[in-house]
Amino acid sequence: MKDQNGIKMKIKTINDFMISNEDPEILFWVGCAGSFDDRYKKVTKAFVKILNKLKINFAILGEEETCTGDPARRAGNEYLFQMQALNNISTLNKYNIKKIVTMCPHCFNTIKNEYPELGGSYIVIHHSEFLDELIKEGRLISKKNNRKITYHDSCYLGRGNKIYEAPRNVIRTITNNLSEMSRSKENGLCCGAGGSQIFKESESGKAEINIERIKDIQKVDPDTVALACPFCLTMINDGIKEKSLDKKIEVKDITELIADNLK
Amino acid sequence: MHIISQLCFITLLTLSVIIIYRRFKFINRNILLGKKNYSSNTDKKTRIKNLILIAFGQSKMFKKIVPAILHLMIYSGFIIINVEIIEIILDGILGTHRIFNVLGMPFYNVFISIIEFFVLLVIISCVIFLIRRNILNIKRFKSIELKGWPILDANLILIFEIILMIAILSMNASDLVLQDFESYKKTGNFYFSSVLKPLFINFDIQTLIYIERIAWWIHIIGIFLFAIYVTYSKHLHIFLGFPNIYHSNEENLGKINNMPSITNEIKDMLGEKVNETIPTPDRFGAKDITDLSWKNILESYSCSECGRCTAVCPPNITGKKLSPRKIMMDVRDRTDEIGINIDKKIKYDDRSLVGDYISKEEILACTSCNACVEECPLKINPLDIIIECRRYYALEESSLPSEWNAMLQNIETNYSPWKFPIDERSKWYKNED
After folding, report:
1. Is B56 part of any domain?
2. Mind telling me how many Å the CA of A51 is from chain B's nearest CA?
3. B344 and B200 inside one domain
4. How many Å apart are CA B324 and CA B378, to the nearest integer?
5. Residue A37, CA distances (Å) to A133, B31, B383 in order
6. Is the pTM for the entire model greater than 0.90?
């Protein structure tokens, strides 16, 4: 198990923990994008690099992990959502999971806010909060420079769960130059992917939502757009490419920014 | 003479109260056409805090500072000037003239002068609002859903308020001139209307008495008409905003309501024990307003059509058909239609909220980003209604877009929204890719 730089990754599934009769500190919920999407798999590996570096004892569900059901619920198919949710809850409860860290804000929102009513109550932490906490504890130290970074709020992290500061705190540890877009935090503009939109063509209109967001990014003219959501990453990346800005502006998850600048 | 005007006044007052009572009964009955499955799990302390800050304090208005200040001027004017209405009503019933004058010289004059100060604020704000609506090019006042009645409604109320305010000032100014005559009751000077005195100085006493009386009647009849009119207008928010904010939820906006009836279906299928206290609904999701909760309908009647939701809606900004304000207006209009049908004893019409009012194109365009919910000064949640309509398309009509059906199929068979085999989930850490 090696990451993209050929460094050996230490990854154990929850089943491995069970066999050796150990308990992990956290369960890392990888998510479908983190498992299947080529671009987001790099973010997953970056997160694992951080976890390994800090010797955090984490488990993944591996092949036992399944979609949280978020896209099904938001497309209106409550039946399929609940089938997924009940299945995941039974897996999580079987392994007596207490603490879950997710990278995807959609998985985060669903497990944190929607699973309790169906019998699954856990401490659920988004990776932005998790990294912020490690930084505050002094365990995670990064190199800092002056590159201009703007942060795009994910709706399900921001308005959906009022997490605005954690990802910004993380970014501030690697740059002195965090610049806000005109529409940010509570007023942040959606990337266009949420509510299952990423899985279909959008309705007819004048423009695509991600292209509207690129206008905000262009006004800030950053070196890097930082974000903390796989769907936002896809949408913003596509928009940046469509506007031929990919040579100028890089689009990265906050996890990658930290992993690339670890001290 | 006195007794006739007293009788006229009492008749008008009684009539207005009856009409307003009937309107409120109609609206209350309509709200209760919604399902009873909504109850806010917010604790009482938070609800009262919301009532004070968001309803009375209008805190959410202040995201846009200019309209917030103008609106606050009209709102505080409305409350303060209402104190004078108590005096007018008492005068009208008892046949007295300026009954609060028993307070004595400095108090009564200060009281009326404060009211006049707010009268001026209201006039200034209403004029600026008229300019904003009709002359300045503010996008949220130009949306297609406002064409016709909604635009007229907004303008009518502003003009109405200006007329009412001018009536107060004319009444007071002519009263001041009359006070210079021996035979007229002395109530002392009023600060702001004294400026208007020169306009009335050349009239004889009889004309002045007529002017004062006519202004008095215009003001109070105007108030009665206004109170009735409000129940037919977007201005209903001045009353329903309070219960709406009180009953609102404080959960994380990302959370979508659970459907316990579906949990029962699944448990029944798996042979597990179902929760029998939960009724099986006639329909999953919402096709009509009777499938929504009473809170959804209360929200629709509380909507002030300000359009802040639509102004921040990503699909709307990018030219799609969805407008959260229109969703709320549609729910209210359809509810009114059903309410009128019920009163006419028409049991069934072949119309419904989904289809006849809200199109599928609108429902499918939402990104569930919660910008509209975050923005609403009245804590209205259009997203909740949109999700209920999607549930109808998914669970009753099975008419979702084919791309969504493919995604759902993937979740069902591969446990991922994308078409990857289950065992590929471990590829990234087994370094097989």
Report:
1. no
2. 14
3. no
4. 14
5. 27, 46, 29
6. yes
Measured CA to CA, the distance from residue B283 to residue A78 in angstroms comes to 13
To test the contact with chain B by mutation, choose from A86, A152, A196, A213 the residue with the greatest count of B C-beta atoms within 10 A, namely: A196
**Nearest-CA distance A141 → chain B (Å):** 25
Q: Are residues B220 and B306 in the same domain?
A: no
| Minimal C-alpha gap between B408 and chain A (Å) | 6
- Domain harbouring A115, CATH code: 3.40.50.1860
Is B377 touching A (CB cutoff 8 A)? no
Contact B409/A at CB under 8 A = no
- Set of chain B residues whose Cβ sits within 8 Å of the Cβ of A211: 318
Is A23 found in the same domain as A51? Answer: yes
- Using CA atoms of B200, B201, B204, B209 in order, give the dihedral in degrees to the nearest 10: 40
- Look at chain B and report how many structural domains it folds into: 2
H/E segment holding residue A224: strand A224-227
Q: Min CA distance, A121 vs chain B (Å)?
A: 14
Residue B317: list chain A partners with CB under 8 A. 189, 209, 212
Ordered per-residue pLDDT tens for chain B, 433 residues: 578 888 988 999 999 999 999 999 999 999 999 998 888 888 899 999 998 999 888 889 888 899 999 999 999 998 888 888 888 888 888 888 888 888 777 888 888 888 999 999 999 999 999 999 999 988 888 888 988 889 999 999 999 999 989 988 888 888 888 888 777 777 778 888 888 888 888 888 888 888 888 888 888 898 999 999 999 999 999 999 999 999 999 999 999 999 999 999 999 998 888 888 888 888 999 999 999 999 999 999 999 999 999 999 999 999 999 999 999 999 999 999 999 999 998 888 889 999 999 999 999 999 999 999 999 999 999 999 999 999 999 999 999 999 999 999 999 999 999 999 988 999 998 865 5
Residues of B in contact with A207 (CB under 8 A): 318-319
| Partners of residue A58 in chain B, C-beta under 8 Å | none
| Three-state DSSP class for residue B348 | coil
Asked if B329 and B301 count as a contact pair (C-beta separation under 8 A), the reply is no
How many independent structural domains does chain A possess? 2
Are the CB atoms for A89 and A118 separated by under 8 Å? yes
Looking at the fold, whether B174 and B293 belong to one and the same domain comes out as no
How many other CB atoms sit within 10 Å of the CB of residue B135?
A: 8
- Domain boundary, last residue among A72, A103, A131: A131
Domain identity same for A196 and A256 = yes
Q: If you count residue pairs, one on A and one on B, with CB atoms under 8 Å apart, how many are there?
A: 199
CATH number reported for the structural domain that contains residue B402 in this entry: 1.10.1060
**Domain boundary at B185, B216, B246, which?**
B246
A208 phi and psi angles, rounded to 5 deg: -90, 150
Looking up residue A198, the CATH number of its domain turns out to be: 3.40.50
Domain extent at residue A51: 12-131
Last residue of a domain, one of B213, B246, B279: B246
Residue numbers of the domain that contains B146: 2-31+64-246
Which two three-digit tokens encode residue B295? Answer: 């809170």
Which value does ipTM take for this structure?
Answer: 0.94
Residue A75's SS3 state is coil
Radius of gyration of chain B (CA): 28
Same domain assignment for residues B268 and B186: no
A209–B422 CB contact, under 8 Å: no
- Contact indicator for B417, A30 with CB cutoff of 8 Å: no
